[in-house]
Design goal:
Mean pLDDT: 97
Number of helices: 3
Distance between the termini: 60 Å
Radius of gyration: 18 Å
Structural class: mainly alpha
Number of domains: 1
Shape: elongated
Order of helices and strands: HHH
Largest sheet: none
Length: 72
């Protein structure tokens, strides 16, 4: 495994992605599809941002209920 493959695996695993995602990224890299790999990584980044926004909405709901609870 090359240094880049190791870094890619470590990065994606550390970001919480499963083995299928890691394997797809490695496949794209090995096939020399740099543009496809870059697009794939960007799509995974968007997935994380979407999850982050959903978590923020949940936190906002809890904050609202905390404020409401303080008023009763």
């Amino acid at each position: 495994m090359s240094d880049y493959e190791t870094a890619l695996t470590t990065c994606l695993s550390g970001a919480g992605f499963d083995g299928d995602t890691v394997n797809e990224a490695i496949r794209l890299y090995k096939n020399g599809n740099k543009d496809d790999l870059k697009q794939y990584l960007k799509s995974k980044r968007c997935d994380l941002i979407d999850r982050m926004h959903e978590s923020q909405r949940r936190i906002d709901r809890l904050d609202y209920m905390i404020r409401q609870t303080e008023r009763i």
